[in-house]
Amino acid sequence: MNNLPCTLSLVRRGIIRTFAYLLVFTIAPQVFAQSETMVLIPAGEFQMGSKAAEDETPHTVHLSAYFIDKYEVTQEQFEEVMASNPSDFNGKKLPVEQVTWYEARDYCNKVGKRLPTEAEWEQAARGKTTTRYFWGDAMDGDFAWYWDNSKRATHPVGTRKPNAYGLHDMSGNVWEWVADYYGDDYYASSPKENPQGPFTSKYRVIRGGSWRDLSEVLRTTRRNYDLPAGRFNHIGFRCAK
């Protein structure tokens, strides 16, 4: 009987320790879903595309969970990893541009990430909305750098309001390379689960619009493309994993 208090104490400690472990493993994924640099986009289904253009055939997509950068990759970040800065506009906190698709891919790989797929990019950009832009149906310069407010140049990342996921510059500032090849009829036959884009093409997809585009181009579903070896001062990127 003299050992009973000690036994009860050990049992209580065991229960508390088990509860603590359960608490950590249950809550931790949510706690670390948001960080200074990346955001967790949960698995789920959404309606991709729109009726605004022939290559945007609306279709249902289901994606697994993934992380995506909160900001476009800056010149400072790119130079630190790649030991070069091809940008036309000069500034450490400005998005890197005049970067080829291959260089964007290589940068993401070097930092343990990858380029997002086109479907991942659109899901992240929408932020669970179905409106023309991720903030509503009317243009609002508080959310994007574009032709009317950019003064014909890029701006430091994160200086416009974010979307519902906390992502900045998903519209405007610079177009963003994504992983997919471009196919104008791909949406019509795209698989529902984690689409990866066409098997091959001459072009790679860019999304989001830029500092030099009119408001119409910045709508969330707008698709564009360019040669992967091309360098343009209105195209940059962000990474996913």
Backbone CA Rg: 22 Å
**Which geometry do the CA atoms define?**
globular
**How many domains, as an integer?**
2
Overall strand count: 8
| Average of the residue pLDDT scores | 90
Helix content: 10-25%
Q: What are the secondary-structure elements, in order, as H or E?
A: HEEEEHHHEEEE
Q: Which structural category fits the helices and strands?
A: alpha+beta
Sheet of most strands: 4 strands, mixed
CATH homologous group name of the largest domain: paralog of FGE (formylglycine-generating enzyme)
- Determine the N-to-C terminus distance: 57 Å
Strand content: 5-15%
CATH architecture of the largest domain: Alpha-Beta Complex
Top-tier CATH class of the largest domain = Alpha Beta
Give start-end ranges of low-pLDDT stretches.
4-33
Number of helices: 4
Explained architecture:
With 241 residues, the chain is an alpha+beta fold. It folds into two domains: 32 residues; 203 residues, paralog of FGE (formylglycine-generating enzyme) (Alpha-Beta Complex). Helix content is 23%, strand content 15%. The protein contains four helices and eight strands, in the order αββββαααββββ. The strands form three sheets. Strands 7-6-5-8 form a four-stranded mixed beta sheet. The protein has a two-stranded antiparallel sheet with strand order 1-4. A two-stranded antiparallel ribbon has the order 2-3. The longest helix has 28 residues. The protein starts with a helix and ends with a strand.
How does the SSE layout of this entry go?
Blueprint lengths: L3 H28 L6 E4 L2 E5 L10 E5 L2 E4 L5 H8 L18 H10 L7 H9 L48 E7 L22 E4 L15 E4 L8 E3 L4
